């Protein structure tokens, strides 16, 4: 079992506390000392220059999928050279009318080196396995679609 | 509907690609230019100086709950002065034996200016925030709101 801690701090910097315009900016601190400035999504009165909880969830899914993919590839002795992903998340109403991160599309592009190279089908199989055992993908209700670029 | 994107890059910096030792460090970029150094969790051969997906997941939930809480408080005309949260997420096996973020405990401390809500009203605000939180709606994780006892 692993524990993961984060802390956040927000304080009002507007005289009023009006729902349309109170400041959404806040600071997130991780245990390793990294601090990031965060806000709400732009559609919800956030600040375009900062990252939102939705951004963090998409990044968590993309990063976790990659880690799991790399672990499975290394077990199969496929030497991965680079892995890039462009992830997209869609905040929309689910079938019950509740807004959530309904869909995430991952678009991984993986380069292998050496003489033992997986076929496209084998790469798809690793993605399939990685999705099934990803710690974050197992923690979300989001539908995750993996569209590899070969 | 709104859309969120993140991109990530990983590259090998070792000749071998052993499960235990391959480098987990990667770069996560958001469209606004924010860059995070990612890794896997230390329990899974990661670098504690990088941010792992589990931390991003906990931060996403903590931040989204707060933003929803603040919006509910503004609607209720309770003027919030500051909000802090020390959130903890637990990575464990679920009932199906799969590793996932089974629980996240939020421990919010909220300061109001003027007369704040009663304990009961405060609890109701957190319950409403939980029900309306886009990220909480997106996960399977059990979320507990446990304000620290003063």
**Proportion of strand residues of chain A:** 25-35%
**Helix amount of chain B, in percent?**
25-40%
First-residue to last-residue Cα separation of chain B: 41 Å
Give the largest interface pair and sizes.
A-B, 85 and 81 residues
Rg of chain B, please? Answer: 19 Å
CATH superfamily of the largest domain in chain B: K homology (KH) domain
Q: How would you name the CATH homologous superfamily of the largest domain in chain A?
A: K homology (KH) domain
> How confident overall, as mean pLDDT of chain B?
94
SSE pattern of chain B: EEEHEEEHHE
CATH class of the largest domain in chain B: Alpha Beta
Helical stretch tally of chain A: 2
Radius of gyration of chain A: 19 Å
Distance from N terminus to C terminus of chain A (CA atoms, Å) equals 36 Å
Known CATH architecture of the largest domain in chain A: 2-Layer Sandwich
**Biggest sheet, spatial arrangement of strands of chain A:** 6-4-5-7
Overall mean pLDDT of chain A: 95
The share of residues in extended strands of chain B comes to 25-35%
Count up the domains of chain B. Answer: 2
Indicate the multimeric state.
heterodimer
Low-confidence segments of chain B, given as residue ranges, are none
């Amino acid at each position: 079992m692993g524990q993961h801690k984060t802390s956040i701090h927000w304080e009002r910097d507007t005289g009023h506390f009006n729902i349309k315009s109170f400041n959404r900016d806040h600071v997130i601190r991780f245990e390793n000392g990294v601090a990031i400035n965060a806000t709400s999504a732009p559609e919800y009165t956030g600040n375009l220059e900062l990252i939102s909880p939705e951004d963090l969830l998409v990044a968590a899914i993309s990063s976790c999928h990659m880690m799991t993919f790399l672990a499975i590839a290394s077990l199969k002795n496929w030497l991965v050279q680079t892995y890039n992903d462009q992830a997209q998340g869609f905040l929309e109403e689910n079938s019950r009318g509740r807004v959530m991160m309904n869909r995430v599309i991952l678009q991984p592009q993986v380069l292998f080196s050496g003489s033992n190279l997986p076929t496209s089908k084998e790469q798809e199989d690793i993605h399939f396995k990685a999705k099934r055992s990803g710690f974050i993908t197992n923690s979300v209700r989001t539908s995750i679609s993996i569209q590899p670029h070969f | 509907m709104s859309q969120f994107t993140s991109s990530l890059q990983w590259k090998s910096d070792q000749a071998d690609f052993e499960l235990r030792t391959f480098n987990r460090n990667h770069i996560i970029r958001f469209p606004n230019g924010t860059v995070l150094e990612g890794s896997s969790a230390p329990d899974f051969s990661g670098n504690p100086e990088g941010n792992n997906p589990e931390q991003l997941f906990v931060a996403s939930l903590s931040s989204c709950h707060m933003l929803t809480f603040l919006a509910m408080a503004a609607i209720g005309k309770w003027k919030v002065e500051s909000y802090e949260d020390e959130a903890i997420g637990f990575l464990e096996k679920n009932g199906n034996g799969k590793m996932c973020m089974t629980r996240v405990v939020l421990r919010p401390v909220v300061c109001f200016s003027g007369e704040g809500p009663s304990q009961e009203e405060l609890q109701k605000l957190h319950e409403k925030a939980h029900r309306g939180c886009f990220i909480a709606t997106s996960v399977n994780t059990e979320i507990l709101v446990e304000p620290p006892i003063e």
